[in-house]
Write a structure and sequence with these properties.
alpha/beta, TIM Barrel, Immunoglobulin-like, 2 domains, eight-stranded parallel beta sheet, six-stranded antiparallel beta sheet, 10 helices
């Protein structure tokens, strides 16, 4: 079984865009290890668009790495990453050109999959730009899914069609292991909130072996890089990361990990949050909150060890209180159980509640707990 939990790793695009190189990837790989990301469960180092020459090799028709950016070739870089116990990811596109106007894989799917396998690629992000008119997404992603399986190497298939063509209704049939259901994220609060709100009707469409990818994280970018825009504060980054964990979304970091600060490192390696994300059953959360203010969310998620994740999110511009009525999640008062919660982002320790829990949450921030039932 190639993928039995949401994939975790780092991708170049959010920060670097076209400004990528062999040295950048090697430096980032070293930082990945130094920060303890591998120990926390992150595996993939992924190069996004702009890694190849503008044209294919005229004799072999194969994709060719840009020699100024990658003078030692991709196999050498893959070996460097593999020797450190990590996995190597790359990018292509279902259209004739990539989104940044490099050669795409349309009509070259089997040749490109074979090429990627020969380089030691473990992960393929497959975009959706410049496809011929009249050619539908299911047809294109079936072709690459088949090509990757025929390549002779286990390669995670990350389908990135931005939520087009009702992708959640057919993508599992293509062999994809994760799929984008949103447009591109930007590094601001409005962007990540828009994404998570758009996914509420689709939470049940993510499941083991094929996870709903709501785009790469901007946590720790602070307005720097290609999608930097206004940036976010640490409260928004806490909320973003926690929401991705509740949604069982792939955790693909997008900041410059070579310069990650301790606040970000502590957040993205928080073992309890990652435990929520990596839960083997990947069940969607239930949502409740304050019906008179949709900026306050309460999420409740079943975990496979019999405990629960309970999150309170304040997307408002002011500090406020929100609550959980346990009966909303299936626990009436007459059941004879209380709920003991353990704070996993602060220092509140353990507390026990009956029927109801009210929590103060600062603006843009969240509170997250691991909960268990206790017999009265």
């Amino acid at each position: 079984m190639l993928v039995n939990r949401p994939p975790m790793g780092w991708n170049t695009w959010n920060t670097f865009g076209k400004d990528i190189s062999d040295s950048l990837i090697r430096e980032s790989t070293d930082a990945f290890l130094d920060l303890g990301l591998k120990d926390a469960g992150y595996q993939y180092i992924v190069i996004d668009d702009c890694w190849s020459r503008r044209t294919r090799d005229p004799e072999t028709d194969r994709l060719v790495p840009e020699p100024e950016k990658f003078p030692y070739g991709m196999k050498s870089l893959a070996d460097y990453i593999h020797e450190r116990g990590l996995k190597f990811g790359m990018y292509s596109c279902a259209g004739q050109r990539t989104c940044a106007d490099y050669p795409g894989s349309f009509d070259h799917e089997f040749l490109d999959a074979e090429t990627f396998a020969s380089w030691g690629v473990d992960y393929l992000k497959y975009d959706f730009c410049y496809k011929p008119q009249g050619v539908e997404g299911p047809w294109l992603y079936r072709r690459m899914g088949m090509a990757l399986r025929a390549s002779g190497r286990d390669i995670l298939f990350s389908a990135c069609n931005w939520g087009s063509d009702d992708v959640w209704s057919w993508i599992r049939s293509t062999g994809a292991h994760m799929y984008r259901s949103t447009g591109d994220i930007m590094d601001n609060a409005e962007s990540y909130r828009k994404i998570v709100k758009s996914q509420l009707p689709k939470l049940g469409t993510s499941a083991p072996q094929c996870y709903n990818d709501i785009d790469m994280l901007t946590v720790g970018m602070y307005g720097k890089g290609l999608v930097g825009t206004t940036g976010c504060g640490d409260a928004d980054y806490r909320s973003q990361f926690a929401l991705w964990c509740f949604f069982s979304a792939p955790l693909m970091l997008g900041c410059d990990i070579r310069h990650m600060n301790e606040t970000t490192r502590s957040l993205v390696t928080n073992r309890d949050l990652i435990r929520i994300n990596q839960d083997l059953e990947a069940r969607p959360p239930m949502k409740s909150g304050r019906p008179w203010n949709e900026n306050f969310w309460t999420l409740f998620k079943h975990l496979d060890d019999g405990t629960y994740a309970l999150g309170f999110f304040n997307m408002d511009e002011k500090d406020g209180e929100t609550y959980a009525n346990f009966s909303d999640f299936g626990l009436p008062n007459h059941a004879g159980y209380d709920v003991t919660v353990r704070d996993i982002l602060g220092d509140e320790g353990e507390q026990t509640y009956r029927e109801y829990m009210r929590v103060k949450v600062p603006a843009h921030d969240c509170k997250v707990y691991i909960a268990k039932l206790v017999k009265r």
